[in-house]
Amino acid sequence: MSQEDATDQHWIADSQGCKFFNRSPQPKESINWSGACVNGYGDGEGQLSWFLDGKPAGTYIGQLRAGRLDGTGTYRYRSGDQYEGGFYAGEYDGHGFYRFAEGARYEGEFVEGISSRHGVVQLTDGQRVESDFVVARVRRSDSYSAQLTLLVICFDDYNRLMKQVMIQSSGFPLLDEQAMDMVRMRPFDIHRLANEPISGCHMLGVTFENNEPYFILPRK
Question: Which residue among 35, 57, 176, 184 is least enclosed by CB atoms within 10 Å?
Fold first, then answer.
């Protein structure tokens, strides 16, 4: 999508009027850009810092093209997570590493923000398992983004749950415990949701709304 095709709400400008693509606008959001501004859009190498109500909310160091993350760079999230690798048109693209704040790491290939589903997760105990990838946050509203309980779950060839490891907490221990209990009780519901052979390891996000669990599966 070109700049001309995007609505104004999908772009944010710094104090100099230089524009950047903003997929999820939030109230009291601002940015600072250290690099060049070409034809009104951030371009080239630099550091792009995001703020919410004046507080740091994420930093990107790397390449931009026409106001979008494009090339090689590192994005550090407010949660402490970090992605390092390729970007194209604002999405993870190419080879990349996603490091979770709690110690696990995912390495794999991405196309337009979607994992190739043949990456490798290194767990905090050093074990490495082949898995897909789920982003560790989900939008609940225009002003609120919830962090998921993020799990790696492994099944044998008979769809029996053999392993479950939490690689990122929601920030609420009770919800984390409930999420792991729901996975243990409902593996075949997850199979139905995934609509694919379930043997092997998968990354799975779990969140709750009105006390009902929602399973967040890798984007296809």
Answer: 184
Q: How far apart (Å, rounded) are the C-alpha atoms in residues 30 and 57? A: 10
pLDDT for position 196: 55
Q: How many domains does the chain have?
A: 1
Q: How many beta carbons lie within 10 A of that of residue 174, not counting itself?
A: 8
Give domain status of residue 133, yes or no: yes
Domain residues for the domain of 133 are: 119-220
Provide the whole-model pTM.
0.79
pLDDT tens digit sequence for 33-72: 999 999 999 999 999 999 999 999 999 999 999 999 999 9
Cα–Cα separations (whole angstroms), residue 37 to 31, 82, 118, 202: 14, 25, 37, 41
Contact 66, 48 (CB under 8 A): no
Q: Is residue 195 part of a domain?
A: yes
Q: Looking at the domain assignment, is residue 219 inside a domain?
A: yes
Radius of gyration of the chain (CA): 19
24 assigned to some structural domain: no
